[in-house]
């Protein structure tokens, strides 16, 4: 399975809205609050992203 690394929330949104993440896994390496993570979860369903994970370095 291929995983796309997103360095910023903007890069995540840009790729998701252009349907570049469909069928892929995504790993986010930017700091994301619980609120942002839940918003990204909505994108996961809407744009058919397999799995989204977040770096724990910032927690």
Strand order in the sheet with the most strands: 1-2-3
The H-and-E topology, N to C, reads as EHEHE
Major sheet characteristics: 3 strands, parallel
Total of helices: 2
Instruction: Return residue spans where pLDDT drops below 50 for at least 5 consecutive residues.
Output: none
Rounded to the nearest angstrom, the distance between the terminal CA atoms is: 26 Å
Report the mean per-residue pLDDT as an integer. Answer: 93
Protein name: Exonuclease V subunit gamma
Task: Give a description of the structure.
- This protein has 59 residues and is of the alpha/beta class.
- Helix content is 37%, strand content 20%.
- The chain has 2 helices and 3 strands; from the N terminus they run E-H-E-H-E.
- Strands 1-2-3 form a 3-stranded parallel beta sheet.
- The protein is globular.
- 17% of the residues are buried.
- The mean pLDDT is 93.
- It comes from Vibrio qingdaonensis.
- This is Exonuclease V subunit gamma.
Quick tags:
20% strand; 37% helix; three-stranded parallel beta sheet; alpha/beta; 59 residues
Q: Which helices and strands occur, and which strands form pairs?
A:
Blueprint: E1 3-6, H1 9-17, E2 25-28, H2 34-46, E3 51-54
Parallel strand pairs: 1-2, 2-3
